[in-house]
């Protein structure tokens, strides 16, 4: 029985992974792991995998004769047992643990606001309607802050955006509102963030929570020299994790 | 054939689906870096899965449906020219490196030598059209990064293929299990095509999936443990920056089709040679890929592949950093 389980672990793993992938696709949660442009290809291949699994079940597993000696057999049994345990553990996680977005731990591990990631996809000048600014994402604001650090430019431009709370190392009175940018999958996620000035924020806001913040950018109070501009919130409200937590 | 088996399989998969829906509504994600490590591991798995399935599918097509004569008759007989042609196969197969492993196994199953398969395996992720387009989108022709990547990837693949072809007993370069599978089976013609497809899918999945899962899990957890910021501080030294990039490529195991976008943010801090070292080394040797290579090639063979590719990438990066 054990030998059969070991021999079948690849097909079992592939079929479970394919089913979970299909479920993620139907639930619209594939984008927690990969860029949406790969959704169709991934789902098509997962369907193909299910068909092939059924064919493999119809035709039964091939018989292999083991010609190894006793020492090699023992080593192989150990290696197979270890890999089967790891495979089973991850498959269990796939089935049991709800999918989740990357957290502040990864944001802190990776450098934020790398210029090439946030590089201008479009420019915002004084000619555009002020209403447009209320639709900008964290990425857009981070880009603007890098392009223009003159306080006058931000006067009257309302911020209304959502993001995840991550700690800031510039001041205890500042936290970062962060989103991750994805080019292929969560592995290449790059954090982009804007600084939010909110004294004693730790008392009412928890790291990793999602917030909607309305307000505007202005120079920070004295004592925070490293940041030319911070977001001064007018209203902060808790927000559900969005369906697409990453920006693409 | 027993028809209750596929019914049982489908019932089992439906059970998995029901469990997944139920736990999604009742359980909460973990609140710790472990959750991020698992998310990164699953991300690697989900990203690789379609390519692995496509690779297994192509491997089955090559082994079951393509005639022997068609696969070899138009290839040059001279081993150098033969490898030079085989290492361009990737131009017609926009499959990422994980998918190339089952295809390389399929090619060996149809009589290609170990050197041939390695030349294909190492060149394919770099010369494939998607990789070329994305590298061009990311870097254009700046600093010769695209050209250096293409030429170096092609040359290194042929160099490693040639080195392995010198071995007097090529069978020893493979794992015992795979070498056994490559021997001509006793009675393949007695089996229907459907049975052959089922058996090959079973064998390839059994070999590749555990390796892919273990590789993804290790890569996911290491990424949470290794600070990228610390690596970036090493970016301006012509030697250390190359080593840092090789280490990063080894750890992150990102797909060759998009690694140019991944590395783009580092272009501000790292020297061009270091970026090229990343772009050449990463598709050929990383945690996930080593795990997959070990399903087919003996430990020493994988060591030679990793060593030669690593040294060549290191040398290339250093030369570009000093000369460029």
Structure explained in plain terms:
The complex is a heterodimer of chains A (248) and B (324). With 248 residues, chain A is α+β, with helices and mostly antiparallel strands. Chain A is 40% helix and 17% strand. Chain A has a 5-stranded antiparallel sheet. The longest helix of chain A has 27 residues. Chain A is elongated. In chain B, α2 runs antiparallel to α10. The model of chain B has no long low-confidence stretch (mean pLDDT 84). Chain B starts with a helix and ends with a helix. Chain B is mainly alpha-helical and 324 residues long. Chain B is built from 16 helices and no strands. In chain B, 72% of the residues lie in helices and 0% in strands.
- What is the terminal-to-terminal distance of chain A? 47 Å
> Which secondary-structure class do the elements of chain B indicate?
mainly alpha
What is the number of helical segments of chain B per DSSP (H or I, 4+ residues)?
16
Shape descriptor of chain B reads globular
Main interface: chain pair and counts: A-B, 78 and 86 residues
Tell me the total number of β-strands of chain B. Answer: 0
Distance linking N and C termini of chain B: 64 Å
Query: Major sheet of chain B: size, sense and barrel closure?
Result: none
Describe the secondary-structure layout.
The complex is a heterodimer of chains A (248) and B (324).
Chain A: H1 2-27, H2 39-59, H3 70-96, H4 104-109, H5 115-118, H6 130-133, H7 138-147, E1 159-167, E2 174-181, E3 190-197, E4 210-218, E5 230-238
Helix pairs in contact in A: 1-2, 1-3
Chain B: H1 4-26, H2 33-65, H3 68-72, H4 79-86, H5 97-109, H6 114-127, H7 129-139, H8 145-165, H9 176-182, H10 193-225, H11 228-232, H12 240-252, H13 259-263, H14 272-281, H15 287-293, H16 299-323
